[in-house]
Amino acid sequence: MKSATTLAILLAGLLAAVGDLSKYAPIVCHVYNFSGCPVAFSKISVNLNHGNAKLNHEYELRDIRYGPNDVGTHWFKFNLYKMTSLISADVEYAGANKIPWQDRIHQLPLDGKVLEFAFSDFDNHIGMFRYRIK
Fold first, then answer.
1. Structural domain of residue 73, as residue ranges?
2. Which residues are CB-neighbours of 87 under 8 A, at least 6 positions away?
3. Domain membership flag for residue 8
4. How far apart are CA 85 and CA 58, in angstroms?
5. Structural domain tally of the chain?
6. 49 Cβ contact list (under 8 Å, min separation 6)
7. One digit per residue, pLDDT tens: the chain, 134 residues?
8. Phi, psi of 102 (to 5 degrees)
């Protein structure tokens, strides 16, 4: 019984030293537009007016473009590179979430050949987009 108490105290001390462990957990949200998903992945500031965003796994979004489609919808377009090789040009998404010009990109875990990343504006409205690498 005493060893269980000691273990609990040590574990509590370790958790206090490490902090919030949720930031290390993989976050996967299998919906395209969503709200309330925990933002536990890394954040990169990008410019959505011809900016670039380096992602993990040697991928990079280049020449990011963004604009309105219809009332309430927006398009988001970029070129996808792996290292220096162009994989796909003018990849386009359309979504209902409005994204500001200065936005944050969050990369979600790379699952096989699916590159997932999410966007959240400064009011924490989040939209996720998925691109399948051929």
1. 22-132
2. 80, 81, 133
3. no
4. 10
5. 1
6. 64, 65, 66, 101
7. 455 555 455 545 444 544 444 443 333 333 333 344 433 334 455 666 787 877 666 777 888 887 766 655 567 788 888 888 888 788 776 654 554 444 455 555 555 555 556 555 444 445 555 555 54
8. -100, 105
In a domain, 94, yes or no: yes
Locus of tokens 């108490």: 5
The two three-digit tokens of residue 22, written as one number: 């949720």
Token match 């996808």: residue? 80
- With respect to residue 30, please indicate whether it lies within any of the assigned structural domains: yes
Residue 15 lies in a domain: no
pTM (two decimals): 0.51
* CB-CB neighbours of 37 under 10 Å: 18
- Tokens standing for 16? 């206090």
